[in-house]
């Protein structure tokens, strides 16, 4: 078999439809580009039409297919409307990325209930609802599918200064493993993609010089990740060819951060 054909069979997503919730952000936007580059019809979901259009333009300029749908990840009604809109326009959904998220660097004793509730609503409830709405469709359709939830190193090992964020990401990891078990008989795979330290909008506020120095001292690669470096892991988890037996996995992309001790 020709090498290109072999890779296409493993990782190709032609004819598949991917819904990327949080696709207007930096990391999920790069993941969306990767999915489109592999042949998927990609739906970017978020609230910022301007950011979405810039990403759609990049995808279409590279020969891919993408469109934007404005929805709030914490609203079940809006996610149900999103699913209906995608089915009406694209006819199916095969891959779902739950990637909406927010962060905060508030000291623990200063965290207000409003801040706590806001982070839990977006980071945990948003993933819960995305899995519930799209998981129901995938299970009932009976053709399998892939759900990729965005986790965090702070969901593996609690990190300082991001208390509520760490708690919600830990919950996302736990939910993912539970759903992987529940839905494996239906061929619906549920995994967590775990970025290490990737500078993005939601964490720039916590990347003070002393924190950057601490991170670099704990990262064998001695650098931050680049958004494009999540694409390979995304395609592995999304593809029915390469990832057909991968479910309940916490796939860490961190330059070796979790492997470092002293």
Automatic annotation (TrEMBL):
Keyword check for Oxidoreductase: yes
InterPro entries xrefs: NAD(P)-bd_dom_sf, Sc_DH/Rdtase_CS, SDR_fam
Superkingdom field: Bacteria
Keywords: Oxidoreductase
One Pfam family this sequence matches: adh_short_C2
GO molecular function: oxidoreductase activity, acting on the CH-OH group of donors, NAD or NADP as acceptor
Keyword Oxidoreductase: yes
Classification via PANTHER family: 3-OXOACYL-[ACYL-CARRIER-PROTEIN] REDUCTASE FABG, SHORT-CHAIN DEHYDROGENASES/REDUCTASES FAMILY MEMBER
Family statement: Belongs to the short-chain dehydrogenases/reductases (SDR) family.
Protein's recorded name: SDR family oxidoreductase
Organism name: Horticoccus luteus
Lineage: Bacteria, Pseudomonadati, Verrucomicrobiota, Opitutia, Opitutales
